[in-house]
Amino acid sequence: MHIKIDVNTEIEVKELTDLPKLKIFMESLNMKINKSKLARDLNVDRRTIDKYLNGYQPNNTRKRKSKIDDYYDVIKLLLSDETPQKFYYKRVLWQYLKDNHGMSCAESSFRAYISRKPEFQQYFDSHKGRTTRKETVRFETPPAQQAQVDWKENIRYITKDGEILYINVCVFLLSYSRFRTYLLSISKSQSVLLSFLMESFEAIGGVPKTILVDNMKTVMDEPRTAYQPGKVNERFYQFAKDCGFEVKPCIAGRPQTKAKVEAPMKLLDEIHAYQGQFNYEELHAFIQELCNRVNSQYHRGTGKIPILHLKKERNLLNPLPSRKIRDFYKIDHIPVKVNTSNMVSYKSNMYSVPPGYIGKTVGLQVYDNKIHVYYNTDLIAEHQISTLKVNFKKEHYMEILSNHFPYKDDIEKLALKNLSAINEVYKIE
Questions:
Q1: Distances (CA, A) of 96 to 100, 105, 112
Q2: pLDDT in tens, 405-427
Q3: Which partner from 5, 143, 236, 283 sits 20 to 30 angstroms from 21, CA to CA?
Q4: 3-state secondary structure the chain
């Protein structure tokens, strides 16, 4: 019986790893290897041919696990619909994981990791806002010359108790050093703005020569346009005069004029990373921590650290106004306890609050010749500052009487009668 032998007598060298097989084959035939020709065919150096013929084996490159993979499940949850938290920038997510989950990696590495994960990259693609980029001209100002002010308005925030707040953050930024201060506030009233600016002046140790503002109603009676200079309202003009700075309104519709303060507004998107995580007081503390962090970090635009750069302009700022002027514009937050008569005390006079707050601590803010009474973030009462010893709101007193006499028909008549008697007793002689 004859069986044909099918033996491969040819060896094909396609890559360097085939060379050991070639060596064995050629040695068995007692033939010499043409290393120069192999080097030309494989387009490598002759020394490389020698290395592989002598048994060199390249390391098998294994795909190493990224240390960011340890946070995959956390990232997946944070970017899901299961949480109210929102991350509009990869930078914000990176910072959140650093601060709250102990992740340690460079921002660039994290951004690259997210980009390699389609399920995560899709999240950020879907949250990209459509913005129109306008040509801007960069201007730098000398130390102490200019500050810029702006509001980040009506930010919807869900507290950890499920309460929905609409908050505002005011930003004051020195143009030279990029040092800034933040204010978290429910109100955007003129008194709140003036108080914040005065506190900012005290924080930086002086007053800049000019302040650049947009055409907010708390500053301008008439907006500045390309054709009209605008009109600063009387109270803000007096404030500027008292503090020693010039007001420079931007032309309406040109936010790029104050681009230095517009850009930091993106930082405030970190608020959304903490949706559902804080109460109002904790959110306030977070905003201040954010401000301190930014002031202590390298600024990409200037190449400097703002808090250190501030030292160069602090001595060049205009001096602070007198203590009397500063106190006049500042709003103090005074914590007081509601007494058993549903009243709070301010400068020895009593002011009513609605029933239900006896024994609780509320906050008094006095501005615009009014007393504003807050419980947490809720404005629960507002009174004109009075010389009377006892000041009841009729609706508060009626509600108190209704609780005591639930079946009485004419509560309003009784309330008016009693209030008249109270006013008679406590009237100023």
A1: 6, 12, 17
A2: 665 566 666 666 666 666 655 55
A3: 5
A4: CCCCCCCCCCCCCCCHHHHHHHHHHHHHCCCCCCHHHHHHHHCCCHHHHHHHHCCCCCCCCCCCCCHHHHHHHHHHHHCCCCCCCCCCCHHHHHHHHHHHHCCCCCHHHHHHHHHHCHHHHHHHHHCCCCCCCCCCCCCCCCCCCEEEEEEEEEEEEECCCCCEEEEEEEEEEECCCCCEEEEEECCCCHHHHHHHHHHHHHHHCCECCEEEECCCCCCEEECCCCCCCCEECHHHHHHHHHHCCEEEECCCCCHHHHHHHHHHHHHHHHHHHHCCCCCHHHHHHHHHHHHHHHHCCCCCCCCCCHHHHHHHHHCCCECCCCHHHHHHHCCCEEEEECCCCCEEEECCEEEECCCCCCCCEEEEEEECCEEEEEECCEEEEEEECCCCCEECCHHHHHHHHHHHCCCCCCHHHHHHHHHHHHHHHHCCC
Q: pLDDT band at residue 2, thresholds of 50, 70 and 90? A: very low
Yes or no: say if 256 and 219 are a contact pair by the CB < 8 Å rule. Answer: no
Per the CB < 8 A criterion, the answer to whether 331 and 373 are in contact is: no
pLDDT at 146: 94
How far apart are alpha carbons 148 and 262 in whole angstroms? 9
Strand partners, 424: none
Q: For residue 165, what are the β-bridge partners?
A: 157
> What average pLDDT does this structure show over 316-334?
91
Q: Tell me the per-residue pLDDT of 64-99, one tens digit each, with 9 for 90 and over.
A: 678 899 999 999 999 998 899 999 899 999 999 999
Closest C-alpha among 306, 299, 305, 267 to residue 286: 267
**Tokens (6 digits) for 108:** 């660039």
User: Which pLDDT belongs to residue 335?
Assistant: 83
Side-chain-side CA neighbours of 280 within 13 Å: the count stands at 18
Distance CA 372, CA 194 (A): 17
Query: In angstroms, rounded to a whole number, what is the distance separating the alpha carbons of residues 279 and 293?
Result: 21
User: Looking at residue 281, what is its pLDDT?
Assistant: 81
- Does position 139 have pLDDT exceeding 70, yes or no? no
Structural domains of the chain, with CATH: 16-53 (no CATH), 84-126 (no CATH), 146-266+299-326 (3.30.420.10), 332-426 (no CATH)
Q: Which residues are CB-contacts of 44 (< 8 A; sequence separation ≥ 6)? A: 16
Which of 399, 355, 348 lies closest to 375, judged by CA?
Answer: 355
